[in-house]
Specification:
With 126 residues, the protein is an alpha+beta fold. Helices cover 37% and strands 20% of the residues.
């Protein structure tokens, strides 16, 4: 096998849950291969450098093995090697996200009795 479609490889490597999501990411320009924007039908070959932007973060990987079949995650990780710079950046961003305070979304409507008691405690009334 000399090449595999970009969307099939991204799906097999478990960057995306479905092939249609991988194709959509290609269409939106979130995938680059060797520094150029990649379409879903582009052939990926072993040794190519692929830049993937998805919900999990930005990945810069080198293609090691080609596959058209999606398998277990342990097998999927053998299809590519992530660069050290990419891994460090992703871990750094994950740490920053953990350090940020988490705020609850504002509730709609008037506060419940429990909420009113909590507001009173925060204001020092009780």
């Amino acid at each position: 096998m000399t090449g595999v479609r970009m969307d099939k490889w991204l799906w097999a490597a478990r960057f995306f849950k479905t092939r249609s999501l991988a194709r959509r990411a290609c269409d939106l320009g979130r995938i680059e291969c060797n520094g150029q924007g990649a379409k879903a039908a582009r052939e990926v070959r072993a040794g190519d450098r692929v830049h993937v932007k998805n919900d999990s973060g930005d990945f810069q990987v080198e293609v090691l093995i080609l596959s058209e079949m999606r398998g277990p995650a342990a097998v999927a990780h053998t299809l590519y090697r992530e660069t050290d710079a990419s891994r460090e950046l992703r871990l750094k961003l994950a740490e920053e996200r953990k350090a940020m305070p988490h705020f609850e979304a504002a509730r709609e409507g008037k506060p419940s009795k429990r909420d009113r008691r909590e507001i009173g405690r925060l204001r020092g009334r009780m």
